[in-house]
Structure formats: C-alpha cells, structure tokens
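Re-run with default settings, no changes from the original entry. Doing this only to confirm the output is reproducible before filing.
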Amino acid sequence: MFLETIKLSQRAKEQLVQLKRRTGIKNWNVLCRWGFAKSLLEPTLPPRTNIPADSSVEMSWRVFGGEHADIYAALMRLRCHEDGVGTDDETLAQYFRIHLHRGIGYLFADKSLQRVGDLAGMALSKAPRDR
C-alpha cells in the first residue's frame, strides 16, 4: 500500500470540524472520502504543495477507505497515471494528500453543503445520465 497512515493539516482539521457541524456527519473518514472524491472530479491537476501534517487527526488507510479502500487506491493510481505524474508509492502518497486536502477545501468552501442530503445531491448532479 502506498500510504499506511494519513495525517491531516491543522487547516484541514478545522475545515472538517466545521463540515461535521454543518452536515451532521460524525466521522472524519467519511468526510475525507467525500473530499477525495470531489477533488478527483476536478479535471485540473492539483498544485504540488507541501502540506504540513500538523494536526491531531490521523487515520490508517483502512479506516479512510473502509471496505472500499482498494477502490480508492485504484482510483488514485488511475488518476496519477492519467495525469502523467507517475505511479510509484511516493508519488501516489503525495498526490493523495494533495487531492484529499484540496477536496476538503472544496467541500468547506461550498456553503450550500448544510446536511448529508446535500452531499448526496452533489454526487447525483455529477452522475452520468442515461440518454
């Protein structure tokens, strides 16, 4: 596995605290999954930046991904491949952190996210439609 432990920045922790309050979602990992997915939907490559791991929020990869941890890993590998940044473990870990933090920031900035149903609505609005 390219990443065993995920440690968030203090800024991301503060954003997650607000998101937990707004949405009623109680678990960090659930919000982190939504954030990661939100960032993956963005077609642009996230800027390479050094994100500090300076908060008390830490989780294992298995806690982050739950029963779908292997799918999240495959999505990260695919995205890195498509972006042409490499798929070695170090690159995957770096880009996962960048995507995760960008996605948390996107969720935090979206003031229309006020409850769990708003996240579902966001996902449904991005779902492919049968024609």
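The longest strand covers residues 5-7. The mean pLDDT is 93.
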